[in-house]
Write a structure and sequence with these properties.
The chain is mainly α. Helices cover 77% and strands 0% of the residues.
Length: 150
């Protein structure tokens, strides 16, 4: 980062430093949360495997494990987004859409469809289709040689 010698630019320089500090703090906190969630997943798997019946998992336990796994994956992708933002000062729309698709996939996996109204399920389906279409269009446009990153 370059500092300007013009008096009016000092505020902008401090704002940029403040912005970078906030993103760095958020990255550290997100790393801590991902690490703690990973430790909790390890504990959950160990407790589920060691509880009777030994080495067998019930469907509800598997759904809990998959939910935690996808939650950790979302955290890792958010960390990657913050890393790219710190490095390039650019937001990768592909990664944001991918995080949203993972989040909705997590919701679908842990969802009990017998307790949800059919219109809600249709809405979730449209969200999935919209995210997939958006991801496809962004990926297609970024593969073109004349494309600039957002």
């Amino acid at each position: 980062m370059e500092f300007s010698v013009y008096p009016g630019d000092y505020a902008l320089n401090y704002m940029e430093l403040f912005h970078k500090a906030i993103i760095t703090i958020l990255t550290g906190l997100m790393g801590l949360v991902v690490m703690l969630a990973t430790l909790e997943l390890i504990y959950l798997i160990a407790m589920d495997i060691l509880s009777p019946p030994l080495l067998l998992l019930e469907i509800s336990e598997l759904l809990d494990i998959f939910g935690y796994f996808l939650l950790i994956l979302i955290g890792v992708e958010l960390l990657e987004t913050l890393r790219i933002y710190l490095k390039e000062h650019a937001l990768n729309v592909q990664v944001v859409l991918l995080v949203a698709m993972i989040a909705i996939a997590r919701k679908v996996i842990i969802l009990d469809s017998s307790e949800i109204e059919s219109l809600t399920l249709i809405g979730i389906g449209f969200i999935i289709l919209s995210l997939a279409a958006g991801y496809y269009l962004v990926k297609k446009s970024q593969d073109e040689p004349t494309c600039k990153r957002l």
